[in-house]
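Intended use. Records like the one below are meant for learning the mapping from a protein sequence to its folded structure. Do not use them to infer anything beyond what is encoded.
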Amino acid sequence: MSSVFEASYVNVGRRSLLRGIGAVAAGVSGVLPGLSLAQQREQATLATGSAGYTWALTAVAESAGYWKKRNVDLRVQDFTTGRDAMQALLGGSANFSTTTDTPLVFAVLQGLKPAVLANFSRYSYDMKIVASERSGIDPRNPSSLKGRRIGTPAGTSGQYALAKYLEFAKLAPGDITQINIAPSDLVGALVRGDIDAFSWTALAGSAAQRQSGGKVVFLTQNGYEKYFRSHQLLLVNQATLSSRKALLSDAVNALLDAENHIHTNAAWPDQVSSRVRSTPEEIRQFTSTFEFKVEFNKSFVEDLVSQAQWAIDNKLAPRPKGDLRELFRSVIHDETLKSINPSRVSLG
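Structure written out for the chain above:
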C-alpha cells in the first residue's frame, strides 16, 4: 500500500520572518527608559510547544520562579506543537520557543535560521505507536503495521518517530498509509476507527485507553532506543541573539537552575502538575526515562543530520547546498552555555 502524506510542513515566509524580527527588536526590546538599575527588569516572551510534560524542565523554570530570580518578567504562550511554537518565534511574537529537533530540522532545510540556545532534555520512549485492538495489529510484532492507516502530526517528532519505528519494524514508508492529524484529534480518530494506530505521546496513548475502555495496545519498543531519540530545545530568534546578550545568559541559567531543581527535589512533579495538565503520578511515570541535562554534544549534531537525511531522502524537504553537519552546527549557539559551564559543551 502506498504511503499518503496528506499535508506538508508549513513554511514560514522570509518576508514574514523579516517583519517578525523587526517586531521583536521594536516591541520586545527590554529595559524601559527612565528606570534605575534596581528597577530594571528584562521583558521576554516564550512560546511553548504545548503545556505537556514533554517540557517539564521549562515548566519547572517557570513555576519555581527561576526566570524571575534572573530578573526576567516572562510571558508564556502555549501552542499545540513545537512546530507551531517555533513558527511564533520566527514570526516575531516571541523571543524564545521550545520545540523538539524535528521542526528545527525542517526549518533549517528550508533556509530559515532559528538558533538553538539550549538542548535541555531528551528521550527515546515517550513517542508511542498506539493501535486499536480491532485493527488486528499485534503489539509484539512491529511488522504487523503493514497495510495499516497510521495518524501523526506532520512536521513533528511524532512523524519522525513513526519513520524510525518503520525502520525498526523492517518496513518501508510505502508499507503503511500515513495520515496527517492534529494532536488534539488523534485519540478521537483512533477510537472511532478512522485510523488503525497513531504515533504520538504516551499521555495520548493513556487517554486513548480511557476513552476506548481499554481497547487499545502499545506496540513494543524493545530495542527502539537504537533507532530514535528526541531532543527538547530552547530556540532564540536572530534579533534577540544579536542584541540581548544578558537575556541569553539569564535564560540558560534559568534552565540550569531548573535542571538542578529536578535532580534535587523529588516533589517537583507536584509543583508543575497544573501547568503541564497531568497528575504528578503521570509526570513521574512518563518522564522516568527522560534525561534532564542542559548540554551540547556531538551526538546532537549527528541526530540532526540523521533526521535531515531522512527528510531529504523521503522528499519532505529540499537538499541544501554544502555539508549537513556544518549547516546544523551553524545554528547551534553554544557560546552562552560555554561561558557559564564549559563542561556542558563538547561539540568539537
